[in-house]
Amino acid sequence: MDAVARSRHIAGAGTPAAAWRLAPELATAPSTTLDRLVPRGTRVAVVAPHPDDEILACGALLYMLARRGDAPLVVAVTDGEASHPGSTDWPPARLRAQRIRETETALACLGVARPRIERLGIPDGGVTAAEPMLAARLAALLRPGDLVITTWRHDGHPDHEATARACATAANGRQARLLQAPVWGWHWSAPGDGAMPWGQASKLTLPPDALARKRAALACFTSQVEGDASTGAAPILPAFAMERVLHPFELFFDCHD
Length: 257
Prior knowledge:
Oligomer: single chain
Largest sheet: 5 strands, parallel
CATH architecture: 3-Layer(aba) Sandwich
Structural class: alpha/beta
CATH topology: Rossmann fold
Number of strands: 8
Strand content: 5-15%
């Protein structure tokens, strides 16, 4: 593991949400509106490495699109079956089924009626190995002019980073626009460290109801927000982690690297 990869290691409690709220980088990042970020008539394709990443990255945006009458495409790269290793409460087959249900419940909470969900079935934890295949499958789903939203290519989780690279390849080939959102980047990065590409950032300002719906949608992922009694493991998404993505805005990077 090189020094750059070590700097993105996800461990401990990470940077608290309170520190990000005071970050000058966030205060000066330009704000945008739904119509500027997603012009009317644009199809949005949200590509989630794991079930819940579509909500963590852009749950409020999905709610705002649904309220506007748009019908986004949600691409589930994996089914998240490896989040509880060694668990007797959550063996992989049961966990896969549960996480699929959680996504459907969360999208309903956001008002996304009859969502189009494409499940690619790539093994959880195996996206890097499947990256060329993922890029090809995404290219087959995309159309010119689409707006693709996924996790940040330096997010710190291998599946998130491989998904972002595959999305970039597919979007470039299909003349689609790509936005990337930090999920675990809020954890390992910190204000002032220069790790996030602030020069490519914009903030989608959220009305209070959109933020409330995002919070409610995250609560639908009970397998992730509750601890595992069979192993004693803490929640995958503890409250302090969710607070880092519950700002009064959603942050997107218009990256070109």
